[in-house]
Design brief:
It is globular and about 75 Å long. The chain is mainly beta and 466 residues long. It has helices spanning 9-13, 44-48, 56-59, 68-75, 121-124, 167-173, 190-194, 219-225, 258-262, 316-319; strands spanning 6-7, 16-17, 21-26, 29-32, 78-82, 108-111, 116-118, 137-138, 152-156, 162-166, 177-184, 209-218, 237-245, 251-257, 269-274, 277-278, 288-290, 303-309, 348-353, 359-360, 363-372, 379-385, 393-394, 396-398, 411-419, 424-433, 458-464. Bound molecules: ligand MTE and molybdenum atom (MO).
């Protein structure tokens, strides 16, 4: 057998583009796949996501790679082996984030501690259900370590008593209900807003949105079991607390109106399953709230307590964050008491393919993307322009028809159009929901200091190769 040179993972990591050569690893083998990039059946953009690192986490997402001929094909590109004395880095005992779970290397990380990351746009709309490993993660604090056998959910009852539910009781006492729902962060597409004027917040691109099939108990069933009525007179809220707490001991918290929590049509879950498996640690293991049609911030993860109150959650994240303001409001004048907490989100859409700055081949171009609206409002149409919004075509919507008013999941869409060599395109998309709500055409008039609710027409400039 030929003997191969040895490389460290760091050395492999320096080969991430066709200019620096494209190296990947599989097992302990190192491959130079530069010449294969253009031949990749899934497209060059997809294989480049793995450049400089291991293939396995990506192959795990796409079953076709499991076939033997794929490994055979790879073998011809072998250039080396990983050095056997590569030791994993020792965890730091002082670091509050040292206990965070491992993550998929394909995620685009916006902040490591706390962990905030989005799936790469190239993979975002490839699947109707986002694989758990790629589902965007929005953490404010370290991920709590929960021992499932000692986990208890506390529900404060109406008469002052409390209900304490183990994970086994939550699973066995209440019927399992399944809902396919998209979660979107309030700050999705914030980076487009910062280009108008700086805003405070994580620089999310278009990927702070993902879709899963959630399984769990209905919040409604648990509250009725605790003794709450179908309806309460006046204003009431259901408040949630997470097991993650800031250094002062304040837990992450949020609330939703009582009516939504009790409505059988609102499908609010205490979820313990995500796409058929137990919740991953980053997404709230062992139990999280899922509030379909509502901003992600209300879907409290690592749920420890549910309470009913005449007031909204006292949490910082309910009171002094996740609210929208006029472009004229700045950090000197903002008064968080004057604006309602964001609940249902406005209609949204984005182009996931091609990516900004791409040079696409002439002939036929397929434009792909997602569209979604809050409050269960179905996306009824997506318009796409290739000339900056002067002329339009209607995209083909893909997805299952939802019951009226309960369209909790996004629609993926695509449009194939002829494109001429040597031209510049400004691709634009905009969605229409079942209430005929539309997206604003530009960002500046909806700019706000926190960079939330960024839903302007999505614009992507590309050139067509000669
Ligand atoms: N306990 C707890 N719940 C939380 C958060 C958090 O930091 N702690 N982040 C919230 C926000 S702002 C969003 S957008 C969603 C993100 O859920 P995901 O990480 O599963 O995508 O979780 C929400 N629930
Ligand atoms: Mo969020």
């Amino acid at each position: 057998a030929p003997s191969y040179p040895e490389y460290t993972r760091e050395e492999v990591g320096r080969h991430r583009s066709p200019e620096e050569r494209v190296w990947v690893t599989h097992g302990t083998d190192v491959f130079d796949v530069t010449d294969f990039v253009e031949l990749h059946p899934g497209g060059p953009d997809k294989i480049l996501l793995a450049a400089g690192g291991a293939l396995e986490p990506f192959w795990a997402l796409y079953a076709v790679h499991g076939e033997p001929h794929v490994l055979e094909l790879l073998q011809q590109y072998k250039v080396g082996e990983l050095s056997p004395d590569e030791a994993p880095a020792a965890p730091d005992a002082q670091d509050p984030f040292a206990g965070d779970p491992p993550r998929h290397p394909g995620l685009r990380v916006n902040s490591q501690k706390p962990f905030n990351a989005e799936p790469p746009a190239e993979l975002l709309a490839e699947r109707f259900l986002t694989p758990n490993e790629l589902f965007f993660t929005r953490n404010h604090l370290p991920v709590p370590a929960v021992e499932p056998s000692s986990y208890r959910l506390r529900v404060d009852g109406p008469g002052g008593g409390t209900l304490s539910l183990s994970l086994a009781e939550l699973r066995s006492r209440f019927p399992k209900h399944e809902v396919t729902a998209t979660l979107q962060a309030a700050g999705n597409r914030r980076s487009e807003m910062s280009r108008v004027r700086p805003v405070k917040g994580l620089p999310w691109d278009i990927g702070a949105i993902s879709t899963a099939r959630w399984g769990g108990a209905r919040l409604r069933d648990v509250l009725l079991h605790a003794g709450f009525p179908e309806e309460l007179q006046g204003e009431w809220h259901v408040c949630f607390e997470g097991l993650d707490a800031d250094p002062g001991g304040a837990p992450y918290g949020a609330s939703i109106p009582y009516g939504r929590a009790l409505s059988p049509a609102a499908d609010v879950l205490l979820a313990y399953e995500m796409n058929g498996t137990e919740l991953p640690r980053d997404h709230g293991f062992p139990v999280r709230v899922v509030v379909p049609g509502v901003v992600g911030a209300r879907s409290v993860k690592w749920l420890r307590r549910v309470a009913v109150s005449p007031d909204e959650s006292p949490s910082h994240w309910q009171q002094n964050d996740y609210k929208g303001f006029s472009p004229c409001v700045d950090w000197d004048t903002v008064d968080y008491r004057t604006a309602p907490a964001i609940q249902e989100l406005p209609v949204q859409s984005a182009v996931t393919q091609p990516r900004p700055g791409a040079a696409v081949p002439p002939g036929e171009l397929t434009v792909k993307g997602y569209a979604w609206s809050g409050g269960g409002r179905e996306v009824v149409r997506v318009d796409v322009s290739l000339d900056g919004g002067r002329t339009w075509k209607v995209a083909r919507l893909m997805g299952d028809k939802a019951p009226p008013g309960r369209a909790w999941a996004w629609a993926l869409w695509e449009l194939t159009v002829p494109v001429e060599a040597g031209t510049e395109l400004e691709i634009v998309c905009k969605a229409v929901d079942s209430s005929y709500n539309v997206q604003p055409d530009s960002v500046a008039p909806i700019w706000n200091l926190r960079g939330v609710l960024s839903t302007a027409w999505h614009r992507v400039r590309v050139s067509v190769q000669d």
